[in-house]
Amino acid sequence: MATASTSHIDHDAIIIGAGFAGIYAVHKLRDELGLDVLAFDAAGGVGGTWYWNRYPGARVDIESVHYSYSFDEQLQQEWHWTEKFCGQAEILAYLNHVADRFDVRRSVRFNTRVTGVTWDDAETVWTVTTDRGESYRSRYVISGAGTLSVPKQPDFPGVDDFAGEVYLTGNWPHEDLAFAGKRVGVIGVGSSGIQAISELAKTAGHLTVFQRTPNYATPIGNAPTDPGEQARNKANYRAIRDASRRHFLGLPYTEVQPSALAVSPEERRKVFEDRWERGGFRLFIDSFADILFDKAANDTVADYIRERIRERVTDPATAALLAPKGYPYGTKRPPLETDYYEAYNRDTVDLVDVKANRIDRVTPRGVRLADGTEHELDCLVLATGFDACTGPLLAMNITGRNGRALAEHWADGPQTYLGLMAAGFPNLFMITGPQSPSVLYNMPLAIEDHIDFLAEAIIYLRENDLDVIEPTVGAEREWVAHTNELAQATLLPDSPTSWYMGNNIPGKPRRVLVYLGGAPAYRAKCDEVVAGNYDGFDLTASRTLAAAA
Ligand code: NAP
Question: Which atom of ligand 1 is nearest to the CA of 504?
Answer without folding.
Answer: 48
